[in-house]
Structure formats: structure tokens, C-alpha cells
Amino acid sequence: HMHVSIWAPPEGELLFPREPMVRVEGPIIDCQLLETALLNLMNFQTLVATKTARVVTAAQGHAISDFGLRRAQGPDGGLAVARASYIGGASSTSNVLAGKIYGIPVFGTHAHSWVMAFPTELDAFRAFARSMPKNCVLLLDTYDVHQGIKNAITVAKEMEASGEHLAAIRIDSGDLAKLTKEARTAFDQAGLSYVKISASNDLDEYTIQSLFAQGAPIDSFGVGTKLATCDPQPSLGGVYKLSAVRDTPGEPWSPVIKLSEMSYKRTIPGIQHIRRYYDASGIPVGDQIVDDSVDQGSTDAIDAVDSMVSYDFSSAKPTELLKQIVCDGVRTREPDSIEIAKSRCRDALMHLDPAVKRFLNPQVYPVGLEPGLAKLRYDLTRFERKGSGRDTTR
Question: pLDDT digits over 116-130, tens only?
Fold first, then answer.
């Protein structure tokens, strides 16, 4: 087997730019073989979970369902989207296979083709209500939403007469703010205030935020294309870089650094882990990247991008984020269930400063290097820029 040891945060934990998501130690060939697989697994699902968290934040507690399978990057991509979006806060998926594999609740409605296959929309609604009396959701925009509302009310009244209830309606096109207001008024006037309203149609965090700003009475959202493709950022720039080497096991590690004319591409050397600092209320106030071999024991941190910026975490309590999950190729702990990961993500987002979560001009969450590591990075940068190669004297 591969003789690697791996450290990582628990799944569903929040991480920020410049931080080590995973630390891998072992023979360089073993570590190198993991690069593509790790980046493929982590970059896309981290991106999807992040996008979903933004959409869920905009939804203000209203349910979000992953509708992205048809626009996802292949069937395996669709499964990854369903899994990651559920951890990121989605309440369900339209992907039935993902529901079977991961135990994610499945949600959906009939298609427009269902309505078109019947002589009239009313016939289609009645047939669907007979087939799905306990979970009937009617799609209203095949022909005309206003007539669809009338037909749905007719079917809802017929369902009441037989002891059943229409669960919800869905509108998938048009002016969603205007149409959902009209639908809500019509259903309330008909004594059907229990009928929920679901909306879809190229939604993202910004359109959902706008709909609520306009007073749209929407109870849930189906978010597809822009969630599965993470529009407008279709990739996450996670990288896998060498940060320390040694020629023989047991010897001290020699830190290494990659330099670039672009400062943000300069790597962080050393055997890194993350200390997250929390205030007395349990709110995270900043993260410190640490290498124990040069740790000065300071609660200060030098910004990971701008060395002229520093942070003081002396009034906060630290917690170590990276936990060992593999030792010499053997897993040391079982992975958490998807429900635990989802709960962890929800709780972490709940405790994150709202200023960091806002969409327009968000506050940058403090991430910095422990002063000993900042000095090591500075010294290595000067050393390498002299063209001398790796320092093996450490």
C-alpha cells in the first residue's frame, strides 16, 4: 500500500484562501501519485458546497433543492454536485441515484411533457393528483401561468373533497416575483393558504436575494444550472505543492518554497497546520497557519498575502483544525456520515460573522502566518531569489 500519512479538517468545516486543506506526508512518489485524485475530489466538491452555502444564505431559511443533474459535468459530476450541495446546505436533490447512494432526500415535480401529453392541462393535473395524492406538486407554466393557477385551484379543491391536500405548485419561467405574488393571493383567497410555492429558472444567490427584496412569497427554490456549474466561477484554484523535504526518514524536514512574479502564487513552506481562534461567544475571529518547528508561541499572525498587515488573537481561544486521518497508508478514523458533515457545515456558517458572508464587499476573514513561519517564508524567499537552490543546512 502507499506509505502516506494524511491530515485534514473534518468534512463540512470552513476553510479560507491560503490555508492547507490537506497535508500529506510520505515518500515523494506516493505523495505525487495522489495529486490529481486529491485535487479532483476536493476542488469541485468544495466549490459546489461553497456555492450552495451562498445560495442557502440568500434563501433565508427557505428550502433549496439541487436541480442541477441535467446541466452537470456528466453523471459522476451530477452525483458529486448532489453530495456536496447537500453538505453545503441544500435540503434535497432531484437526482434519484444520489438519493439512493447517499440517503439524500429526493424532490421534484412532473415535467412540462406530462402536461403536454394530455388533452388539457386540467386533465394532466387531475391525473398527477391521482398518482401522487400524498406529495402532489403541480408545475404551472407549460402554457399560461394564470390559467395554470386556476386549474391548480380546481384540482386542490377536488383533492380536499377526497381527503387529500395539494402540497405545492412550481413556477419555472416568467417574472417570478410577480407571478408568485399572484399565485399566493389566488390560493389564499380560495382558502388554500397551506399550498406552498416553489420557484426555479436559472436561479442563484443574487436572483433569490432580489426575489425576496421584491417581496416574492416563495417557500422553496429549485436551483440547477448555476449551482451545478458554480456560475460565474466554474473552478476552484486549489493546488498541491511541495512544502518540505528530507532525504531520510527521521531526519529534520527542510522547508521549500515556490516563488513567482505573481505574489499570490508564492507558496507557504514548512509542515503546516491551522489554529482557529474563537471569541468567548464561539465566533471564529481568525486563523493562524503554524509550523511547529519554528513556532514562537505567539498569538499574532502576519497576513498570508500582505506582510504589512498583522492580526492579534491574544484574546481568543485556539483550536487545531487538521486531524490525522491516515497513518502510513492505514486509515485512523472512519469518515463522518453525510448528515454529520452537513450539520457541521450549518453550525460553522451560523457562527461565522455575517460581514464575512455578505455578497457585496464582504469583510475578509483574517488568515495569517504565525510569526516564526512568516520569518521562515521571508528568509526562504530571499535565499531562493539568490538562485542558490534548496537550503539543506536546517
Answer: 999 999 999 999 999
pLDDT of residue 389: 58
Compute the distance between CA of residue 34 and CA of residue 237 in angstroms, rounded to an integer: 17
Nearest to 223 by CA among 207, 211, 212: 207
> End of a domain among 228, 248, 265?
228
User: Side by side, which strands form the sheet with 137-139?
Assistant: 92-93, 63-66, 220-223, 196-199, 168-171, 137-139
- Confidence class for position 142, pLDDT limits 50, 70, 90: very high
Q: What is the DSSP string of 349-386?
A: HHHS-HHHH-SSSPPPPPEEE-HHHHHHHHHHHHHHHT
Residue 135 lies in a domain: yes
Q: Are 368 and 303 in contact (CB under 8 A)?
A: yes
pLDDT at site 393: 46
pLDDT at 394: 44
For the record, the C-alpha cell of 384 comes out as 531562493
Give which of 21, 74, 20, 23 is closest to 49, Cα–Cα: 21
Helices (H), 240-370: 338-351, 354-357
367 in Cβ contact with 303 (< 8 Å): yes
Q: Which residues, other chains included, contact 90 with Cβ-Cβ below 8 Å and sequence gap of 6+? A: 52, 55, 56, 64, 65, 66, 223, 227
Average pLDDT over residues 103-114: 96
Task: Give the pLDDT confidence score for residue 1 in this predicted structure.
Answer: 85
- Classify residue 28: in a domain, yes or no: no
- pLDDT of 275-300, one tens digit each? 999 999 999 999 999 999 999 999 99
For the chain, strand residue ranges (E) read 5-8, 23-25, 63-66, 92-93, 137-139, 168-171, 196-199, 220-223, 244-245, 254-255, 272-278, 284-291, 300-303, 310-312, 317-320, 323-327, 330-331, 367-369
Q: Does residue 56 lie within any of the structural domains? A: yes
255 DSSP β-pair partners: 244
Q: Which domain holds residue 282?
A: 5-21+240-385
